[in-house]
């Protein structure tokens, strides 16, 4: 269940994003035991920033044992030719052992599910988490694979396929906002 | 915490890597940055990514090689590509087939990347004009050895955190060296000062036109350089008139212990391999704390993964 009920808007500002993230954090905090280790891995680039925020907020909820990591999925993608100019390959940082403990995978927007598929492939090369759960800031529908999120901040169900859901975050873009806009 | 959202770097559009002479400084930095990301792959428990799954790379070596050939093979296998090894010995080349015919036939089997080493300068470029697939130069005569140049730059940048402003001596048999040329082109583009050191027969003044300083007295610069890159004396290429004797060469241009003591405290010693221990470099220095020689080999793998990945991605642009 997402924070904002229908009808959807096209623009969410900084205070909206803050409430959406808080909603995500409270859902996550009530699911995982705070005293056990939880690994939080963000998908570059905005999933990384989001994972960073979730981590510091979960620490305030008493989570004392959070392992952190960043995944670059460029080398695992099967849709490189469709996403336009090739992205720069950046390093993956997973210095933690991801075996056995629960792992929370974090991304900004869930659309076709192909990024998440790539991330799951990448994670399998690093180990075998006890359970992998998926948290996304926005679920915009349009899945091409049988992948569903476990924690959703905002559900946008009627986004036309020629529109993009752009998440901008302070850490990467200087401000917090979610905007639905036509593809450039 | 600040994370750069989009790379402000250039778009890589080169399907071939033939040399470093015509790369822009931005392109060189782009390859080095990409290699940095690939270095992490080799630290994983599963040292493999699926980026080139279903692609085929062929190693075509018309000259002997240990490091480069093995490094390209391992790089391709870490990217999940399939690898064919072709060598001149035992192939139809010994029956008189031309280079172009050999390459066309190999390409007709559905190869995506040809890695070529050849004794003739320009061989890689000739192939690139003939075939549709990507061509990566693994050394053509005394012309260029771009991946060696890139891995040398990567290693220097990793050690010093920068390249601009460094004083780098490349010592020995410069005239026969493709490594020296690739290093010279790339280092000067990125703002390093390159000093070529060796006897006049092996380091002609003509190199000054390429932006290098030419010095025939090693001892005059030994105390002021940040990096000493010792080249192998290529006995197989040197004409007897260029080179009086091994002992004389070592005495004037070898990195001996005595000379090493006059170097800067944090001097970085490099060698592209294979080494002639006791000729251009003394064993103790090659194995010592200042040596980056094995680091060069390790970094070579990451650099070649980056190059194979980038040239393959550029094929999709067409």
Structure characterization notes:
The complex is a heterodimer of chains A (184) and B (318). Chain A has four helices and eight strands, in the order βαβαββαβββαβ. By secondary structure, chain A is an alpha/beta fold. The longest helix of chain A is centred in the first third of the chain and has 18 residues, at 14-31. The mean pLDDT of chain A is 90. Chain A has a single domain (11-79, 88-182), classed as 3-Layer(aba) Sandwich (Rossmann fold). Chain B starts with 24 loop residues before the first helix and ends with a helix. Chain B has two domains: 25-144 and 299-313, Rossmann fold; 146-296, Rossmann fold (3-Layer(aba) Sandwich). Chain B has 318 residues and is an alpha/beta fold. The A-B interface holds A 45-46, 48-49, 52, 72, 74-76, 80-81, 85-93, 121-122, 125-127, 171-173 and B 1-7, 9, 11-12, 30, 33-34, 36-41, 44-46, 48-51, 79, 306, 309, 313, 316.
Summarize the structure.
By secondary structure, chain A is of the alpha/beta class. Helix content of chain A is 26%, strand content 27%.
Largest sheet of chain A, order of strands side by side? 3-2-4-5-6
Helix content range of the residues of chain B, please?
25-40%
Query: What is the gyration radius of chain A calculated from CA atoms?
Result: 16 Å
Give me the CATH superfamily of the largest domain in chain B. Answer: Aspartate/ornithine carbamoyltransferase
Give average pLDDT of chain A, whole number. Answer: 90
Query: How far is the N terminus from the C terminus of chain B?
Result: 38 Å
**What is the helix tally of chain B?**
10
Given helix and strand content, the structural type of chain B is alpha/beta
Query: Are there runs of chain A of 5+ residues with pLDDT below 50, and where?
Result: none
- The overall pLDDT average of chain B reads 92
CATH class of chain A: Alpha Beta
Q: Count of DSSP helices of chain A?
A: 4
Rg result of chain B:
20 Å
**CATH architectural type of chain A:** 3-Layer(aba) Sandwich
Integer tally of domains of chain B: 2
CATH class category name of the largest domain in chain B = Alpha Beta
What is the strand arrangement across the widest sheet of chain B?
7-6-5-8-9
Tell me the number of strands of chain B: 9
Main interface by residue count: A-B, 28 and 31 residues
């Amino acid at each position: 269940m997402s924070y904002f009920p229908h009808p959807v808007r096209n623009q969410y500002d900084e205070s909206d994003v803050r409430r959406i993230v808080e909603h995500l954090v409270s859902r996550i905090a009530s699911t995982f035991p705070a005293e056990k280790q939880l690994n939080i891995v963000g998908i570059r680039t905005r999933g990384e920033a989001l994972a960073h925020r979730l981590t510091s907020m979960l620490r305030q909820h008493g989570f004392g044992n959070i392992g952190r990591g960043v995944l670059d999925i460029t080398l695992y993608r099967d849709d490189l030719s469709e996403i336009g100019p090739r992205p720069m390959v950046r390093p993956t940082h997973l210095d933690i052992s991801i075996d056995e403990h629960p792992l929370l995978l974090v991304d900004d927007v869930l659309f076709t599910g192909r990024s998440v598929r790539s991330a799951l492939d990448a994670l399998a090369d690093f180990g075998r988490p006890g359970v992998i759960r998926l948290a996304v800031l926005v679920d915009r529908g349009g899945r091409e694979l049988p992948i569903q999120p476990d924690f959703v901040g905002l559900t946008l169900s009627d986004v036309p396929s020629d529109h993009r859901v752009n998440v901008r975050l302070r850490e990467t873009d200087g401000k917090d906002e979610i905007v639905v806009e036509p593809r450039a | 915490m600040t994370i750069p959202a989009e790379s402000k770097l250039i778009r890589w559009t080169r399907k071939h890597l033939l040399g470093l002479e015509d790369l822009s400084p931005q392109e060189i930095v782009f390859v080095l940055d990409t290699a940095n990301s690939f270095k992490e792959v080799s630290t994983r428990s599963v040292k493999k990514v699926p980026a080139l799954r279903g692609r085929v790379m062929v190693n075509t070596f018309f000259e002997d090689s240990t490091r480069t050939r093995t490094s390209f093979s391992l790089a391709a296998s870490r990217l999940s590509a399939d690898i064919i090894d072709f060598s001149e010995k035992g192939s139809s080349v010994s029956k008189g087939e031309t280079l172009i015919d050999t390459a066309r036939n190999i390409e007709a089997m559905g190869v995506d990347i040809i890695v070529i080493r050849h004794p003739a300068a320009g061989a890689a470029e000739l192939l690139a004009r003939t075939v549709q697939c990507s061509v990566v130069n693994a050394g053509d005569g005394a012309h260029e050895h771009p991946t060696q140049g890139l891995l040398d730059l990567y290693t220097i940048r990793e050690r010093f955190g920068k390249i601009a402003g460094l004083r780098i001596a490349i010592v020995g048999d410069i005239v026969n060296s493709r490594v020296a040329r690739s290093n010279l082109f790339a280092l000067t583009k990125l703002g390093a000062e390159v000093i070529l050191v060796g006897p006049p027969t092996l380091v002609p003044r003509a190199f000054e036109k390429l932006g290098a300083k030419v010095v025939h007295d090693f001892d005059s610069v030994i105390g002021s350089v940040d990096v000493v890159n010792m080249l192998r004396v290529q006995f197989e290429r040197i004409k007897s008139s260029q080179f009086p004797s091994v002992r004389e060469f070592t005495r004037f241009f070898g990195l001996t212990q005595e000379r090493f003591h006059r170097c800067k405290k944090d001097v970085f010693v490099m060698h592209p391999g294979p080494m002639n221990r006791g000729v251009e470099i003394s064993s103790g220095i090659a194995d010592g704390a200042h040596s980056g020689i094995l680091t060069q080999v390790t970094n070579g793998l990451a650099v070649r993964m980056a190059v194979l990945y980038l040239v393959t991605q550029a094929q999709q642009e067409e």
